[in-house]
Amino acid sequence: MAIDFTLTAQQRELQLAARKFAREVLTSAGAAELLATPEERFLATRPIYEAMVGAGYLRKCIPAPAGGENTGLVDMAILAEEFYSINPSVTLTMLGTVLGLLPILFGGSPEQCGRLLAPFLMKHGTPLAAFCFSEPGGSANADSPPPGDGVRTTARLAGDDWVINGRKKWTSSATGWNRRGADILSVVCRTDPNATPDRAISIIAVEGPSSGIVFERAINSIGHRAHLVPQFSLQNVVAPRSNLLGHEGGGLALTATAFTATAALVGILGVALMRAAFEFALHFARTEKRGGVHPIIQHQAVGYALADAKTAIEAARYLSWRACHALDTQSPAAEELAVQAKIYGSETAVRVITDLLRVVGIESYDHDAPLGRLLQDALALPIFDGGNMGIRRRQLHAIFMRPDYDHLAASGAAA
Amino acid sequence: MAIDFTLTAQQRELQLAARKFAREVLTSAGAAELLATPEERFLATRPIYEAMVGAGYLRKCIPAPAGGENTGLVDMAILAEEFYSINPSVTLTMLGTVLGLLPILFGGSPEQCGRLLAPFLMKHGTPLAAFCFSEPGGSANADSPPPGDGVRTTARLAGDDWVINGRKKWTSSATGWNRRGADILSVVCRTDPNATPDRAISIIAVEGPSSGIVFERAINSIGHRAHLVPQFSLQNVVAPRSNLLGHEGGGLALTATAFTATAALVGILGVALMRAAFEFALHFARTEKRGGVHPIIQHQAVGYALADAKTAIEAARYLSWRACHALDTQSPAAEELAVQAKIYGSETAVRVITDLLRVVGIESYDHDAPLGRLLQDALALPIFDGGNMGIRRRQLHAIFMRPDYDHLAASGAAA
Amino acid sequence: MAIDFTLTAQQRELQLAARKFAREVLTSAGAAELLATPEERFLATRPIYEAMVGAGYLRKCIPAPAGGENTGLVDMAILAEEFYSINPSVTLTMLGTVLGLLPILFGGSPEQCGRLLAPFLMKHGTPLAAFCFSEPGGSANADSPPPGDGVRTTARLAGDDWVINGRKKWTSSATGWNRRGADILSVVCRTDPNATPDRAISIIAVEGPSSGIVFERAINSIGHRAHLVPQFSLQNVVAPRSNLLGHEGGGLALTATAFTATAALVGILGVALMRAAFEFALHFARTEKRGGVHPIIQHQAVGYALADAKTAIEAARYLSWRACHALDTQSPAAEELAVQAKIYGSETAVRVITDLLRVVGIESYDHDAPLGRLLQDALALPIFDGGNMGIRRRQLHAIFMRPDYDHLAASGAAA
Amino acid sequence: MAIDFTLTAQQRELQLAARKFAREVLTSAGAAELLATPEERFLATRPIYEAMVGAGYLRKCIPAPAGGENTGLVDMAILAEEFYSINPSVTLTMLGTVLGLLPILFGGSPEQCGRLLAPFLMKHGTPLAAFCFSEPGGSANADSPPPGDGVRTTARLAGDDWVINGRKKWTSSATGWNRRGADILSVVCRTDPNATPDRAISIIAVEGPSSGIVFERAINSIGHRAHLVPQFSLQNVVAPRSNLLGHEGGGLALTATAFTATAALVGILGVALMRAAFEFALHFARTEKRGGVHPIIQHQAVGYALADAKTAIEAARYLSWRACHALDTQSPAAEELAVQAKIYGSETAVRVITDLLRVVGIESYDHDAPLGRLLQDALALPIFDGGNMGIRRRQLHAIFMRPDYDHLAASGAAA
I need a labelling partner for B357 at 20 to 30 A (CA). Which of B212, B283, D67, D296 fits? Predict the structure, then answer.
């Protein structure tokens, strides 16, 4: 082991195969974004998602020990960059499903894993899972003690079943293809009305479709136009007692673990969008003369703006890889690096794509060009998966206050 | 005269009346943005535009000497801030009409002014004018000598008429309510195929509807969703010889004069959008607890982000006012200040609204909240009306290279 | 009254006279910065300061009602921009003296004003005053209730005298030309050991030289190399009871008033430094070829960087003027605008000068060029006079939380 | 081989040993910066430099094939981060010597390497080498054809000797400890007065001391206060014909190769300075209360500012490592990545340290605290070693214009 940025032969093969699949299959999902309503747009991506599952890409996101083919977050990053740069909406549907499974993967017993993961290991169908964390009114303070509301969704035991009531929002794919629920909903809920937040919250797997899931609306989101982010309520939704994931009361810790893993990946999602925007802007600059004599790339201001964009892309990619590697190797700096990759990759993506719009100029204001859509997608990155202001920087702030914090932990660890 | 930031009684009255009108009348234009196609959205704003005309606001944008009621750009800025903060699309329709009239106002003979401006001085109807400058393929280098294409639209004399051929794009409202042409199109075109650009280009007023105006498409723009930016061709469009505005060959100079005036106003458009975004974010922060104990404004990070936003708003407003005043008083620094107000106000708006999205967090990703739409509108500001990268900074660059450039001209001139 | 950016004839005369005086007299003060120790550097500026006093400029900073010639902060801004752009160190010595007099001007009785201000109204000598607020260990939380230390310097009554003990730091010119004290020290101190901070703190005028003032060291500051910022202690320093300024216990409020006035001026100090840096960089770019064929201003990257710098300068100047005008006219938005001018002008100055260093390139790394020194001076602006992070943004944060906060107050008020 | 961020056991040992040596030995070099003149400061570091050589660190910077112990740029980055974070001046003296040797290492024959490198492979003495590229008047356009001056220093053959005339500036250590010349000067000069720049320029090794080296002055630089950057002339300086390095006329290409290698390292120099500043600011925030109740790190604004700083540090480190690795493995993306690491690391360092000054507040304005000095050192990074504006972004601009440019080359290459 050594500091190295060379892909293994398998990683390179994954990268090239994913790039080819994205170009050949995911590209066509773009048309879905032109449909009128969020649900129409989402439903129109189903064949593409089916193709992704069929080609084994969902399996490639599930760890090998759990029956899938994934060997780590670095590989996930390589895959995600290729897919997300071509179609963020449908890629997010797949990644959202993986997120929905994380409480099972991180907290589930072997029995739960075997039972609940099975549909997601097939190479057919369009299985969806959803991580149901956020609630109407916001969940940045889900860990708030009273009088803060914290988590408002509740589950109480009735015999051998949990009976769940509450409302959720912004939960990717949660109401599924038919409004009646994804195949698995990992529902963050309060299982003890009296305990402190670090003991009161649990995650329960609900298997959809389920009768108490009441679709309210599909959010008309700024970007990810063909991805479903519903608002819905759970009205006496029933799940067997054995579907509680991890230990009772450990829900916030399990949530934190899941969102640390995704944070490292969000960094690479930013890279993917910037890369797509850069590719378009570079091609535009090399070919368009805008009434003048030379392609506009010959203007120094254009070249320098491209230089700044590309520099940011490269910086974001290696920080994200570094965070993924830290999680894969369980580095003590892993949490810090994952959050940093999320913050940096997401905010850099918004800034860089905004700048590239100016390189292209007014043509970028037309939805026939991709930049507007890429920016609309990018705007999600700093505010979803734990908003950078309300949650992610707070995590770093908390890390810095730990008495044993070592600011050099990330820079060096021997093999 | 003295350095002063106090509105006159008339200016304050204009501000308050415009604020009231905007809130009561323009607010309802927002619904138009939800319709499916660009043309449907544009047409749905027609009653609102009619109300604006009916209330005399278009007249208030036309200088008093030309028969209107406008007394200067500072007043325009006060009006524009109020309207644009409530509805950018329909306000841009009005301002685009004013822009379309600028070549008449700046270059027209008394006869032309009297004849061509008349419909725009009424307090009824929905008269539209359009400044037809940009062309497919871009016009950042409209002043390019060969072999650059420069301006591709041509006009040749046939008897006492100009016959115009070419294509135009991004020209606000140019094809009018019925695809057959706005009431006035100020068409930038090449009247001398052999002269150098500073003598070859002229502006000709075409009175619509006109049979050779061939609508190609309404651009599906990122923002200003209910404003019409068409692409169209002029196929043997005929205009009387007497409709050439200013002197023959003076088209680029007249264009520059028009775009200097608008530049100062774009600064205030940025202020208007930021102000609307700030108002929403401030209210959100003061009322939302996001699961916690206190409204989130009590978090220092929220308060500081709001502080930075508000500081930028104030800086942009006074720079814009200063530019408007410089134009009103024909200061030697007027061109420089106008361009600076445009660059600063436009780019600051994009940055500030982007930041405010993060203050609000994920709720801002829902089109039910205004921030996404405000950002989509703001994205136009740096790239329309002369892109900041391809045109506006080039103007400043050219100013700095003038041998007699005085960098203190803006800071002091005695009464 | 109307929105206007035209200087009155008197203002223009002030501007030109100050510009001439600065160029002819202040320029020579630059040599003082090359001396070895902070005190040597400070002492070497004394003749220049004497010339400033002699030419009546200190009088021009003291309001007319108090016997001086100042007519408002807008005039102060015009003067300060001219002086500070040529020599920040000695200009700060004059402005620091004015700050030291503000508690007298704002809170003093007619008797106190008459008695204490007299030496500062003369056109001879080198009178110094100092506002003694900050203490070793920091004073960002001077208003902290226990167990925070808040203000640690104390004054207790002994007969008809205050006896003051404590330590101060960062107090411009406080120990005077001879280490024994400026002519006036406005000392912020705790006069009631038991009251809450809003009633416990007062400001007492100490007339130097005074035997209990014990010089500890002159801080070797990053910039303002020829300005004195001492650390010293007050050991049983005696002042007559009648030297308490304003009402007993009103010290923090009086401090806040003083620092609101200075905030608006700090904005213009940023303008002054940027302007000096821009002037140098522009000249460099117009004359230097760096081995190439053309002056480097012909490179687009250079022209655009200059454009961004100049735009920021203009934005900062008018925001500062607006804040000064708001204070002069007692606008309800005055506090907000003053703090915003301070934050914006100070941070923009650091950013812009940093960028201009890159335009000039490696030559700017030589102290023979002015840019390094200008940046070192600029670095003070965001952190002195109430640090932007610990104090100034906190002020804005507090303003936004007021129930009656009106975010449009700054944008319009009728004459 | 695989994407990996784990140090080998040898790398970790190097890191820890260098950290220990820096803390124990380099720390004391800080005192040199307080001396009055640049030369005094430089001379005062000589014992420290001697200790570095004695401990074998110079040898560790010379590649193993050339007789040293260096195994690649990744190792150099690990070493440089440790040293430079403690003392930039003396570390730059060592790195400048390595730069001076690069033309020998990259272009020298075995005979030249054996002969010229010998003194630098010893573990004693204070050997200095200097890369003499920049000239008074600037060298950003060293490759300019006439009428641009390009490289003005000339060498003509006189028998078996080169006779060199010209002036150089900003050349680290070039005049050596005694003004008479470093042990090796790699002098970029024009060997053919008539050829085009790509054939006219060569690099000749001059062995000092040499009689024609005429010291003009030691630049009083903004930072790196104890490092020598002289201006000097070469007046009929003689070097044997056999000291021409590489092939005649290949000087600019050899220069470019050298400056690509250093670019990757400059990135890590930025990391080193940020890391030192972060360490100080973090400690300050965790311990200082500034008059309040809690350490200021408990303020959210402080925690968030630290979060942003730390995120930038991590991003810069891995981009720099990636660039070093690309150079070590001769990746096709190596040049692009090296320049990006230079631009990003250098400009980020200036920005981050500037921000950290605000976290610490006014105390950072005192040279007793390290932040001012760190910033002054950091200011060099964007403008030395090829200014980012005049040279480095131009390199990227040129890369993007190459017809075969592959924007994904950096992201993936199989083992």
Answer: D296
Residue D415 pLDDT > 60, yes or no? no
Write out chain B residues lying below 8 Å of A148, CB-based.
Answer: 289, 291-293
What whole-number distance in Å separates Cα of residue B379 and Cα of residue A364?
10
Tokens representing residue A401 in the block: 């206050």
Q: What is the ipTM of this complex?
A: 0.97
For residue C211, the tally of other CB atoms under 10 A from its CB is 12
- By Cβ distance, the residue of B11, B278, B407 closest to C282 is B407
Scanning the structure block, which residue is given the tokens 């940027």? C274
Alpha-carbon distance of D352 to D61, in angstroms, equals 28
Q: Which residues of C58-68 are buried (b: 16+ CB within 10 A; e: fewer)?
A: bbbbbbeebeb
Decide: A7 and A78 in contact? Cβ < 8 Å.
Answer: yes
How far is the first Cα of chain D from the last one, in angstroms, to the nearest whole number? Answer: 6
Task: Identify the bridge partners of residue A214 per DSSP, sorted by sequence position.
Answer: A233
CA distance B111 to chain A (A): 34
Confidence of residue A337 (pLDDT cuts 50, 70, 90): very high
Report the residue of A135, A259, A358 to disrupt the B interface, i.e. the one with the largest count of B CBs within 10 Å.
Answer: A358
Q: What is the largest CA-CA distance in chain A?
A: 79
Q: Are B273 and B320 in contact (CB under 8 A)?
A: no
Question: What is the Cα–Cα distance from C286 to C295, expressed in whole angstroms?
Answer: 5
Residue A414 has a pLDDT of 55
pLDDT band, residue D327 (cuts 50/70/90)? very high
- Cα(D262)–Cα(A314) distance, rounded to whole angstroms? 18
Which residue(s) pair with B375 in the sheet?
Answer: none
Distances in Å between the alpha carbon of A52 and those of A18, A29, A90, A297? Answer: 10, 12, 9, 37
Q: Are D380 and C365 inside 8 Å of each other by CB?
A: yes
Q: Does B299 touch chain D (CB under 8 A)?
A: yes
CB contact under 8 A, B289 and A366: no
Express as a percent the part of chain B with pLDDT over 70. Answer: 99
Partners of chain D (3+ Cβ pairs below 8 A): A, B, C
Mutate: best of A294, A304, A306, partner C, most C CBs <10 A? A304
* Residues of chain D found within 8 Å of residue C138, distances taken between Cβ atoms: 288-291, 361-363
Q: CA quadruple D287, D290, D292, D298: dihedral positive or negative?
A: negative
Sign of CA dihedral B259, B260, B261, B267: positive
Nearest to D415 among A9, A319, A407 (CB): A9
Please give the positions of D annotated as active site: 385
pLDDT digits (tens, 9 = 90+) for A233-286: 999 999 999 999 999 999 999 999 999 999 999 999 999 999 999 999 999 999
Which domains, from first to last, does chain C contain?
A: 9-121 (1.10.540.10), 129-247 (2.40.110.10), 253-411 (1.20.140.10)
Which residue among C2, C300, C311 sits closest to B8, beta carbon to beta carbon? C2
Establish if B362 touches chain D: CB-CB under 8 angstroms: no
Residue of B nearest to A301 (CA): B389
E strand residue ranges, B41-173: 129-132, 154-158, 161-169
Beta bridge partners of B412: none
Cβ of residue C410 closer than 8 Å to a chain B Cβ:
yes
Distance (Å, whole) CA C45 – CA C26: 9
- Give the H/E segment covering residue D302: helix D300-328
> Which whole-number Å values give the CA distances from A96 to A66, A81, A227, A258, D166, in the listed order?
18, 15, 10, 11, 66
- Listed residue (A82, A84, A80, A180) closest to A130, CA to CA: A180
H/E element, C366? none
What's A236's DSSP letter? E
